[in-house]
Structure prediction request, 229 residues.
Amino acid sequence: MTDIAKNLRDLQQQIAQMARQHGRDPAQIQLLAVSKTKPAADIRAAFAAGQRQFGENYLQEALEKISALADLAIEWHYIGRIQSNKTRPIAEHFAWVHGLDSLKHAQRLSEQRPDSLPPLNLCLQVNLSGEASKGGVAPEQLLALAQAIAPLPRLHLRGLMTLPAAETDFARQRQPFRRLAELKQELCAQGLALDCLSMGMSADMEAAIAEGSSILRIGTALFGERDRA
Ligand SMILES: *Cc1c(COP(=O)(O)O)cnc(C)c1O
Prediction:
């Protein structure tokens, strides 16, 4: 068994165990394999071991891998920062976008999503740390943004995503994830049909599972350390 296949199996077992520990159904938690900076061969190895959802951050790198791996039935998720002049390839080549935080980008994705594809699934990124470098909409602006995006054609607003500041203490790791779960409930109470919380990475997946994560975005624990960010 390759390392990646073994890592994947170990991760699946850990996730299932953590889910049960926190009273969650493991079937409600999806593993998104974050393959940024990793070669297409690593993605093939994970695919061969059963992984189908992959996340990429850098558009040019992602497009090269999508083309090299076109023979595989992969569901591609774009999890990087969105640039206004690069929305078209995102609309054309991905099934999901995590990290959307602007109405203008949503309008462009809506216009550029090909009719031949199903609606593009979206998670709105919420900035809970106040760090300007992180991107994401402020919690106070979230409802208005979600209400503006939800009716756009060719898009399917699925939920919320966050990328908290690194934190090692378990109780503190849980705080932003709990806040994101509360924000999702508030939006649902306003009539928005959201079913996803994209939260949790290699170092904080248990905290995210405990707070209701439905999509874990995992890179390092599956593919090993990255040479560059
Ligand atoms: C890189 C990245 C991840 C994965 O992080 P790991 O710590 O390697 O698991 C998850 N989400 C986003 C947005 C990322 O950029």
DSSP finds nine helices and eight strands in the chain. The mean pLDDT is 96.
